[in-house]
Amino acid sequence: MGFFERPDPRVLQSADPTPAAAVIGALKRDAIALAICVLVVAGTYAVTVAVALHGAAKTQGTIVVTGLDAPVKIVRDGRDIPHIVARSDRDMYFAEGYVQGSDRLFQLDLTRRYAYGRLSEVFGEKTLPLDEAQRAVDIEAIAERQLRALAPRDLAALVAFSAGINAAQATQPLPVEFHMLLFHPAPWTPKDSLAVSIVASLDLADSWHDVFARDAVWREDGPRCFNAALPLSDARYDVTVDGKRAASVKPSHASDCPDAEAAARRPDRAIGSNAWAAGGARTRDGKALVANDPHLDLTIPGIWYVVDVSSPHQHAAGATIPGIPGVLLGHNENLAWASTNGEMATTSVFEAGHLKRGSWETERFRVRFARDAYVRYYRTVREFSVQDENSRSEIALVRWPVYAETHSTIATALALDRARDVRQALRILAGYRGSPQNFILADRSGAVAYHVAGLVPDDPAWGRYVHPAADLRETFAPIPFARLPSRPPAHDAILVSANNKAYGPTYPYRLSARFEAPYRAYRIAQLLRARPRYDEAYFASMQLDTFSPIDAEIARDVVRFTRSHPDRWLKTDALAMLARWNGRYDADSQGAALEHALRVSVLENGTDLSARLTELRGESLDGRGVEADLDGVLYNLDERPRWCDAGGTRIEHPLAPMNFAFLNGAWLPGSGDEYTVHLQEPGFAQGFRAVWDVGNWERGGIAIPSGESGEPGSGHYTDLTRAWISGTLQPLPFGAVAVRASATQTLALRPR
Fold first, then answer.
1. How confident is the model at residue 606 (pLDDT cuts 50, 70, 90)?
2. Which of 109, 119, 307, 489 has a CB 3.0–4.6 Å from the CB of 185, allowing a cystine?
3. Residue 224: its pLDDT value, please?
């Protein structure tokens, strides 16, 4: 204690005849002061969060920003969708970055952190396992390689787009999530946009986790029984790309093949997307029609962002993923395009074998509220290491084509935004280097076309098993674009794609370990065959269809199966309800809820659905498995909820598990299931619904489940949910007259 310092009161009080009591009294007073400080801090935090919760980005008036060359006008329509009018491509991409940064800044940062494996810097140890798994792919290094290889035009677009996001961050209120989590986002860079596109390709690729699960079946049952356990498709429902019934192939089921319980270790989700089209000769107005509804995780804000961008050189509208400029799925003035995931084998997995000493790298993970973590990864030019999930003490090597790719998928997307017709679009898609997608195209002439594009290695494993280490010497070159499944441009064609097998018996490549079940594709083709001519209203109604062919078959077969054993099953109310059910997953249906519970508890419990279907259909020599599982189930399913309750789902915010459920979106009543065209299951649904009447752009339209804005206080956080539930498909204004007529707010960006 220095001479001029005031003495500590506790020291003075300790000179009292009862020093212990004096010290305790002083500590109590300090504790009260500390509690007051905590309350003040907590109160300040609560007030800050409350203010941010009700805040929103400015979408009206004028904002002066750094980075523009000329003024830009951003018109918001009644749904808050931005329509950008710029004098140059550079300013157009800047403005698109600005609206994304205004509406979805937290989502942008969260996606970037997920891509780079840096969630733990904000969320702590709970997200460290996710970061460690994500960092194995080294997306940051892939993005750096792609950045160096970008063409000047594409690099300029990403630079302008990034500058726009950063301008929004500098001039708009910080979203509430940053206040709640007490951190501030770093500036956005062109590399970050590339990382978002790469992680999108990774999430659409054949996962190495699935390869390990299939490998367990391959090793346990052998190649002969693999197809019985995990068939490539359900031949009863296969349809061609043209919507025709595929040639029936009688399934082979060896009586000595065991039930593939290992196949149920990672049950397949009914993921994917729907897309279909009709040429001008098949429509009422002579214009081609395109429908698209991609299926992704159901979150708020949604994964898709709707936008309309224009400059003197291009004009495109539709949906993109926040963090990526331009329009990913939609249309320009002359062309519309849609896509579905190819469900094709892109990932080759190898036993590690001999590892080179100089190929190990140590990654550092900064963990909030904890010590840094360090993990070693093995990486070569073509492979990276992951844990061998069938031998936990070992590592395996993964070869994913995009890992060594320098060509960005963003370049393909930006080129499609400028394409003049179907044929030019096909030439552009020949250079697409991402995970394989089924693309459907249509142009003003009325022509429609189909082509698979992307990297599909000609790997004899096709994702079914793990290669021995000796196969690392092999090079599995991608199948040439010209040899991937396709249909040439035609005016009288109909096209169907729903992640199903896209080729016939004469096609030379397997392409996949297992395609998505063809039930949605079958139903789409069935609806297209139901009439000779189509309009945009019919296509929109198809997207809401809740009939499930496979579930209707299961209900019939269960009723038949039980009635053929009257000594074992008596008549029950459940059985009578199942017999009356019409196969539709409508909101008011009790039969739908009953059949779904029956399918999940009996046919998908402990084995693969396809294996149980063979028993139920009588294609297997042994039906005892189904018989044993049905025993008692019909008596135990006493509850009779409606499907709107049993099949409903909440649109959740990513922070909901952290007790921030007040950020959640609306409740979607049950309507459709995993196998209906109107796909909806807990946490997963149609990400948007779009129908494009090619050339008549004010017809058709696009719908999203929640709202355009990611800010709860904006008024546009959940405002579109009611229309989504009712199935309303609103036009997306495109022409200047339509945009002016729909305008509710206009923001002018002016250069500083």
1. low
2. 109
3. 82
CA 619 from chain center: how many Å? 36
Q: Are 305 and 321 in contact (CB under 8 A)?
A: yes
Element (H, E) at 330: strand 329-332
Question: Given a cut of 60, is residue 416 above it in pLDDT?
Answer: yes
Containing H/E element for 134? Answer: helix 128-135
- How many angstroms separate the CA atoms of 354 and 378, rounded? 12
CB 660 within 8 A of CB 694: no
Cα–Cα distance, 332 to 309 (Å, whole number):
9
For residue 90, pLDDT beyond 70: yes
Block residue for tokens 């994917």: 272
Q: How far apart are the first and last CA of the chain?
A: 56
DSSP 216-230: HHHHHH-HHHHHHHS
Residue 293, H or E segment? strand 289-297
Give the number of other CB atoms < 10 A from CB of residue 742. Answer: 19
CB-CB contact of 537 with 691 (8 Å): no
Residue 24 has pLDDT above 90, yes or no: no
Sheet harboring 395-399: ordered strands across? 348-351, 395-399, 384-387
Tally the residues of the chain: 752
With the CA atoms of 468, 458, 225 and 389 taken in that order, what torsion angle do they form, in degrees rounded to the nearest 10? 50
The closest of 202, 690, 230 to 405, measured between CA atoms, is: 202
**What are the backbone dihedrals phi and psi of residue 13, each rounded to the nearest 5 degrees, phi first?**
-70, -25
Q: Are 487 and 493 in contact (CB under 8 A)?
A: yes
Q: What angle do CA 437, 522, 682 make, to 5 degrees?
A: 70
Name the residue among 49, 38, 42, 323 with its Cα closest to residue 178.
49
Quick one: DSSP state of residue 479? Answer: P
In the structure, what pLDDT confidence band is assigned to residue 248 with cuts at 50, 70 and 90? low
Distance CA 508, CA 40 (A): 71
- pLDDT score of 668 more than 70: yes
Token representation of residue 217: 């079946």
7 vs 427, residue with greater confidence:
427
Cβ of 740: how many Cβ atoms within 10 Å? 12
Is there a contact between 664 and 651 (Cβ–Cβ < 8 Å)?
Answer: yes
Angle at 243 (CA atoms; ends 724, 284), nearest 5 degrees: 65
Residues 395 and 404 sit within 8 Å (Cβ to Cβ): no
Chain segment 34-74, per-residue pLDDT in tens: 666 667 666 767 777 878 788 899 999 999 999 999 999 99
Lowest mean pLDDT among 79-83, 172-176, 243-247, 632-636: 632-636
Q: Nearest CA to 656 among 338, 211, 299? A: 299
Are 296 and 638 within 8 A, CB to CB?
Answer: no
Residue-wise pLDDT tens digits, 178-210:
999 999 999 999 999 999 999 999 999 999 999
